[in-house]
Amino acid sequence: MLKPHISRVRFTAAVVAALVAVSAPVIAAGPVSAAPAPASAVGAAAEPERFWIYDGANFTGLEKSFTGSDPDFSNNTWNGSSASVDNDTSSAYNDTSYTVYLYATPHPSDPAKCTNLISVLSPQEKKPSLGTGDNAASCVLWVK
Questions:
Q1: 8 inside domain
Q2: pLDDT (tens digit, 9 = 90+) per residue, 34-86?
Q3: How high is the pLDDT of residue 87?
Q4: Domains held by the chain: number
Q5: How far apart are CA 87 and CA 91, in angstroms?
Q6: 102 is a domain residue
Q7: Is the pLDDT of residue 118 over 60?
């Protein structure tokens, strides 16, 4: 007959081994949240990158954001306004991972064909003054 303390040791070792085997996948997967994700977060898309322009220096006044290239600002209005964006840009913030080019002369359909480069903004660059004097930006081109 086995001594009681030997069988308890074997039993304890077996239980520990079983618990480790069962819990290893859970530990590897990370902690389990008790609360479900909010409905708005389930399948929600990431916020798109944006390029911002402002009609005043130092990011003041009316603003407009773009989520991609735009060949002609004249068909855009400032956020919350009916005023055309065309030729009225004084400062810009490139909140994207793209290099952004601002041009003075728009093209009817292709931003890659805009001309008269005004400014180039690197990813995440802010320009409190475009220094154009006449606020001539009329086209934006995003390039990776």
A1: no
A2: 444 444 445 556 789 999 999 888 999 999 999 999 999 888 999 999 988 87
A3: 74
A4: 1
A5: 12
A6: yes
A7: yes
Q: How far apart (Å, rounded) are the C-alpha atoms in residues 52 and 128?
A: 11
Q: pLDDT-derived band of residue 26, with 50, 70 and 90 as boundaries?
A: very low
The helix (run of H) or strand (run of E) holding residue 14 is helix 4-29
CATH number at residue 133: 2.60.20.10
Task: Return d(Cα 105, Cα 118) in angstroms, integer.
Answer: 10
Average pLDDT, the chain: 77
In terms of phi and psi (left: phi > 0; alpha: psi -120 to 50; beta: otherwise), the region of 87 is left
For residues 53 and 58, what is the distance between their CA atoms, to the nearest angstrom?
Answer: 10
* Cα–Cα distance measured from residue 101 to residue 98, given in angstroms and rounded to the nearest whole number: 10
Cβ atoms of 24 and 70 closer than 8 Å = no
Question: 81 lies in which domain range?
Answer: 50-143
